[in-house]
Design goal:
It is built from 24 helices and 13 strands. The N and C termini lie far apart (70 Å). The chain binds one RNA strand of 76 nucleotides through helix 4, helix 6, strand 13, helix 15 and helix 21.
Length: 553
RNA sequence: GCUCCCAUCGUCUAGCGGUCCAGGACGCAGCCCUCUCAAGGCUGAGACACGGGUUCGAUUCCCGUUGGGAGCGCCA
């Protein structure tokens, strides 16, 4: 789109950025490219759950994804307030909201209400018992002057006097949606603590910040008529709305941060030995967590335990993907595809799917946003990531990988750089993620383990060392001598030596290579033999062969 | 329970009345290549939820059913 367009992303800082939010941010950003403005606002009106560190984390996540905001909190050269529409934290804008409230109350379009949260809870559960939804009823014995007098001295909320008329929401992706007056009640604008509710904050801020297009998840659709009614009461414009479909788990359930906690709980319950249960008791809040299914552990503790238990946590926050070593441009690409498609063919005549943020910025339109919810398919994401990694140059890969290691695998950085470069070159085309390139379970894991920590795969040993005529063991012993004599222990000469040995014995190359591979790596799978052995170095290879000959009989 | 949204291969999607015995991607299966793996090449299986309309003609439009999802807070 571009000129004249102002979009925004307005997360609440209660944790890391969720992938659904990341996608909304990405779309909003893309829509504003080409002359528009993308701004970032932090909706920290839930004072109990918001935190500054979470806000910072979100800025960091966005920056990592390559989503830069033109206006908003300053972060590493991103953001700022060129038009003076800030501040961008809602809790710093309280006087602005209060002025609007005053106007609304003066016009009797809003009024103070004095029910306590407990009273409302009671009414709500009663309504539920009767099988209906709770709807706030204006007090029957309403006296405006009395209420305003009470307002000055008693705790209260301010509610919006919802006009008794239906509201039609015009949505760019969903069309026109009518909401009857019976489903709209007098919602709260300002909470007891003096902070605006989400509804009030967005409406006021979007107006003051000049937002023209609001993109948000479909779960907000039902809120929109309230916002529209409020805009009318306040004399504001109504922005263009676009409610984008939700991102769901592979099983079709809502992608929720809770799922991580749940995964750990399932592991604990499935553990017959009771050892995991035992472990939980030693953790902060563990006892209560075990007793109460609705409780959640601290995210940090959940990650730690998952690591210990070998539980694979669902990936739902941007940070999860970063930790897993997914490239940011790939995550953006995949996320963009979940709910939007370019509708264009690539050079081979196939539907275009691989693109970068620059392409998205140039081609994104709301018209091509889908309407159905999408399930997150991590296999496809990882396939994209593997491709992207393979397309990186050796140098680019080394840079990305090194940066990843600095953050998530500092021990890898302790190794000599020349060795790391060689290792990176060896594993690159075999990695789905950057993490694979640092994992003992990854394609080069054999080189990360001490010689005596190798575990021999029984099936591989049986097939490649015991069987054959002559048996693999015998060829392995001969290969050992051949390798000892290789002048320069580099891939080419190593392979030449092995090939020569195989030929002289009238055997296929595999008959010698596989026993060597098993001896050097513990299994039947590894990068090409020359590289595999060269990275270990001659001494380690000979040691491993000796150990293998001794142990695998 | 009420309200709203949605519905093409297992998953993400293309398709905006005839171009569709429905195309692509991921995954899956087979073959080729090959010292194993990865990559690559080739091939294959695999979907318009169902029932009514509208129309000369429906995957495409309308209605209903079924299924899925979201919302119903002094959370956002």
């Amino acid at each position: 789109m571009g000129p004249g367009v102002t979009t925004r992303f307005a997360p609440s800082p209660t944790g890391h950025l969720h992938v659904g939010g990341a996608r909304t941010a990405l779309y909003s950003w893309a829509l504003a490219q080409g002359g528009g403005r993308f701004l970032l606002r932090i909706e920290d009106t839930d004072r109990a759950r918001s935190s500054e560190s979470a806000a910072r984390g979100i800025l960091e996540d966005l920056a990592w994804l390559g989503i830069r905001w033109d206006e908003g909190p300053a972060f590493e050269g991103i953001g700022g307030d060129p038009r003076g529409v800030g501040p961008f934290f809602q809790t710093e804008r309280l006087p602005i909201y209060d002025r609007c409230i005053e106007t609304l109350v003066a016009q009797d379009r809003a009024y103070p209400a004095f029910e306590t949260p407990d009273e409302l809870d009671g009414l709500r559960s009663e309504a539920q018992r009767r099988g209906g939804a709770f709807r706030y009823q204006r007090p029957a014995d309403w006296n405006r002057d009395a209420a305003l007098a009470r307002m000055a001295r008693e705790p209260h909320v301010v509610r919006f006097r919802m006009p008794r008329e239906p509201v039609i929401v015009v949505d760019t992706v969903l069309g026109e949606i009518a909401f009857g007056e019976e489903q709209l009640d007098d919602f709260v604008l300002r909470k007891r603590d003096g902070v605006p509710t989400y509804h009030f904050g967005v409406v006021v801020d979007d107006e003051r910040m000049g937002v023209t297009h609001v993109l948000r998840g479909q779960e907000h659709l039902g809120n929109t008529p309230r916002h529209v009614a409020l805009q009318r009461a306040l004399g504001f414009r109504t922005p263009v709305y676009a409610h984008v479909p939700l991102i769901l788990n592979a099983d079709g359930s809502k992608l929720s941060k809770r799922d991580k906690d749940r995964a750990v709980r399932e592991a604990v319950e499935a553990d017959a030995s009771g050892r995991k249960r035992e472990r939980i008791l030693g953790v902060e809040g563990g006892r209560a967590w075990l007793d109460d299914e609705s409780r959640q552990l601290e995210p940090r503790i959940v990650s730690e335990l998952a690591d210990e238990f070998g539980v694979e946590l669902p990936m739902i926050e941007v940070e999860d993907f970063r930790r897993a070593g997914v490239l940011p441009q790939v995550l953006c690409n995949y996320l963009a595809l979940l709910g939007w498609s370019p509708g264009e063919k690539d050079a081979e005549g196939r539907d275009l799917e691989r693109f970068d943020n620059a392409y998205l910025a140039a081609h994104f339109t709301l018209e091509r946003v889908g309407r159905g919810n999408a399930r997150f398919d991590r296999e496809k994401l990882l396939a994209f990531d593997q491709d992207a990694i393979a397309k990186l140059s050796e140098e680019e890969f080394f840079e990305s990988w090194s940066a990843w290691c600095a953050r998530y695998s500092p021990r890898m950085r302790e190794r000599d750089e020349a060795w790391r470069r060689r290792y990176a070159a060896m594993v690159r085309t075999r990695c789905r993620t950057l993490a694979d390139a640092a994992s003992p379970r990854g394609p080069g894991g054999f080189a990360l383990l001490p010689d005596d920590a190798l575990v021999y795969d029984e099936a591989a040993v049986a097939k490649w060392l015991r069987k054959g005529d002559p048996p693999g063991r015998a060829l392995l012993a001969e290969a050992r001598d051949a390798l000892r004599g290789v002048a320069s222990f580099e891939p080419e000469p190593i392979e030449a030596a092995v090939r020569k040995l195989a030929e002289s014995r009238g055997q296929g190359l595999g008959k010698v290579a596989q026993p060597l591979r098993v001896a050097a790596t513990g299994g039947a799978v590894s990068p090409p033999l020359g590289e595999t052995l060269a990275i270990l170095g001659r001494d380690a290879v000979l040691r491993r062969i000796d150990r293998c000959l001794a142990e695998c009989r």
